[in-house]
Amino acid sequence: HLAAADQTADLNARHADDATRHAERSARYGEAAAQALARRDEEDRQWQRRLDQYQQARAATGEGPALQQLRQQLFTPEERLRVDAALALRGAGG
């Protein structure tokens, strides 16, 4: 798992496109793993987009019932546990 995580970090740092990601992963780990990692990449992109949406709404409206409703709409119960930490990491440059 660490090798795949290191490779993903390298691909991210290089801003590699999906085709490059797939080719490198398929060559190293096989087609099935490359497809699974591509699905994980898409899940991460969706998470980041939802975090962006929530962060923008919070900046525009502040805390309140509307923001809590948006949080309920955007995130699963498990994800809601991670939202504040994820936003704190963004603020710290992570």
Which key phrases capture this entry?
94 residues; mainly alpha; 5 helices; elongated
Architecture overview:
The longest helix is centred in the middle third of the chain and has 31 residues. This protein has one domain. α2 packs across α3 and α3 packs antiparallel against α4. The protein starts with a helix and ends with a helix. The model has no long low-confidence stretch (mean pLDDT about 90). It has five helices and no strands. It is mainly alpha-helical. It is elongated.
Concise summary:
The chain is 85% helix and 0% strand. The chain is mostly helical and 94 residues long.
The amount of helix comes to over 70%
Major beta-sheet overview: none
Helix-strand sequence = HHHHH
End-to-end separation in angstroms reads 21 Å
- What is the number of helices? 5
Q: Compute the number of strand runs.
A: 0
Strand content: under 5%
Stretches where pLDDT is under 50 for at least 5 consecutive residues are none
Write down the overall mean pLDDT.
92
Return the domain count: 1
- Classify the secondary structure makeup into a structural class: mainly alpha
Radius of gyration: 16 Å
Q: Choose one word for the global shape.
A: elongated
Protein name: Lipase helper protein
Family: Belongs to the lipase chaperone family.
Subcellular location: Cell inner membrane
Region (Disordered): 1-45
